[in-house]
Specification:
Length: 266
């Protein structure tokens, strides 16, 4: 690694101030994505702003008809949350499937959402539930937040403080994971909240997480796995690498979507 300055603010305002004064600085949440690329010298921030001591950025609570999760909440804590177990168990299953125990006990929801790795699990849940990302400056709807691979609508000086997930009547997440890394080769999150149906896919798209509108339209007629029989998505625009071809990933989207709907309606 190159030399850098390390900051540990205790408030969001202090963190935002440090970020404004250090344009090349990076925010440090769990560090599982940032630190490896720094070790490889692929990233050379002049400063790191550690958010671990910032007050009010952790915890899971019920607010009205939404579950609100602090950005610095660890994956393991979210997975074990009694609030989620009662009101939105499908969301608790997402961090429970992330990586390994070391990753789950250090990685955070805010870091995952802000990084927007194309194979990460949380983006599928955020988009699949129509969540709202709350920053120190504004509220951003999930449909407007993810803008491409490793790209989001976050502006300079903007820090995620919470993510609000509306409670869905039916929801589930199904994942086909890489056996070594635990990342999603394909992951599908489905939800039904009133008349709104959402099907979000991670791991498959060349531009990151996306919704499958054709599946959503079919499920609006009847929210059942049979409604998706015979439906598929084209391989065009799917990610292809040494682990899976674009055609295989496109096939998995249909398989996992049917499994997720079956789980949600069980």
């Amino acid at each position: 690694m190159y030399n850098f300055t390390f900051h540990r603010p205790t408030t969001v305002r202090q963190a935002a101030g440090l970020l404004a004064r250090n344009p090349e600085a990076k925010l440090l949440a769990g560090g599982h994505s940032l630190l490896p690329v720094m070790k490889q010298r692929l990233a050379q921030p002049s400063a790191l702003i550690d958010l671990s001591l910032v007050e009010g950025l952790s915890g899971v609570e019920l607010k009205g008809r939404s579950v609100v999760i602090g950005a610095m909440s660890r994956h393991a804590d979210v997975a074990a949350s009694p609030v989620l177990a009662e009101h939105l168990p499908a969301l608790a299953s997402v961090p429970g499937a992330v990586g390994d125990p070391q990753v789950r006990n250090r990685g955070t929801i805010g870091g995952s959402v802000a990084n927007n790795d194309p194979n990460a699990d949380y983006p599928a849940a955020v988009l699949g539930l129509g969540a709202t990302i709350i920053t120190n400056k504004r509220r951003i709807a999930a449909d407007d937040f993810f803008t491409g691979m490793f790209s989001t609508a976050l502006e300079e000086g903007e820090i995620i403080v919470r993510v609000a997930f509306p409670i869905a009547k039916k929801a589930a997440y199904e994942k086909f994971k890489h056996p070594a890394s635990g990342f999603a080769l394909v992951g599908v999150f489905v939800s039904k909240r009133g008349p709104e149906i959402r099907v979000a896919v991670t791991g498959a798209g060349a531009n990151g997480v996306f919704r499958v509108k054709s599946f959503e339209e079919a499920l609006k007629k009847r929210f059942a796995a049979k409604s998706l029989e015979g439906l598929s998505i084209p391989a065009t625009g799917m990610n292809a690498d040494i682990h899976a071809s674009a055609e295989y990933r496109a096939h998995l989207v249909g398989v996992l979507a049917r499994r997720a709907v079956a789980k949600a309606t069980a």
